[in-house]
Amino acid sequence: SKEKGKNQTTLCSSAMKEEVLQQTQLTNSLYRALERNEFVLYYQPQVSVETREIVGLEALVRWNNPELGMISPATFIPLAEHTGLIIPIGQWVLETACRQNKEWQAMGLPPVRMAVNLSTVQFQDRNLLGIVDRTLSETGLDSKYLELEITESAAAEGDNHLIHVLHKLKGLGVTISVDDFGSGYSSLSRLKTLPVDRIKIDMQFVRGIAKGNKDEAITKTIIQLAKNLNLNVIAEGVETESQFDFFNKYKCDEIQGYYFYKPMPASEIESILMGLTKP
Ligand code: C2E
Ligand code: CA
Ligand code: CA
Ligand code: CA
Asked: Which residue ranges does the record assign to the EAL domain (predicted)?
């Protein structure tokens, strides 16, 4: 009936209004977040399985809004991508991570790689190469200490433009890793056409290790694939000793996860790196 239809519309639109309002508030706050200095980088160590030394750090952005509190990147990164704000935010992340890494090296701390996540939207930006090049020269960070992470889904969808940009980036001397490997639908032959240095095994497979399910077989296969293609391989989300033992046994190069370290603010990373400095 007409009456019923009207009621449904009213119900539906009030819930939708609420949702839209929330999204709008979040978007408005996000627009101001950069100028208000609300972003902060955390860093999570990447550890060599063989030596157990920290060989890299992944920069992970955090948004601390005075009204809304801490907002997970899983919430605001998609919004930033949708609004295009990921371009200036991504630039800020890149600059901050590179400057921080250079600062630690200048202090005499053991040099490590710095991995920075790049969104597909950033790969579509024609200025990306110029931004990375300029950031390296402005911060003075040696390009071999910068790694750029591209998600497997981006790599899978990637056209000739993406491959072209990856080659140009590699030309600057940075390394490239494929994040969340195994979560997407990229064909394995695709991997061989991409100029990448490292693959990061998706956390979902790590979760199933030492539980006697098929994730172990998949994980072993990914490690072997990486070795056959001469790529470095890192497992993400390693939380337990038995998971670590698995990656040790199958000679995964590196691991990243709560088992060793959580993402931490710069000051805590600095103390840890200082502890590694040989007198
Ligand atoms: P990701 O790139 O796959 O990053 C790994 C996520 O796993 C991080 O979540 C990290 O804190 C978490 N993690 C690491 N070790 C463990 C573990 O042992 N157990 C569990 N349960 N989790 C672990 P986070 O920091 O919340 O970031 C979520 C996602 O947001 C990232 O996933 C990435 O896709 C995106 N992101 C974060 N920072 C940036 C950024 O600066 N730029 C872009 N484009 N995306 C970012
Ligand atoms: Ca990542
Ligand atoms: Ca990942
Ligand atoms: Ca992820």
From this structure: 23-277
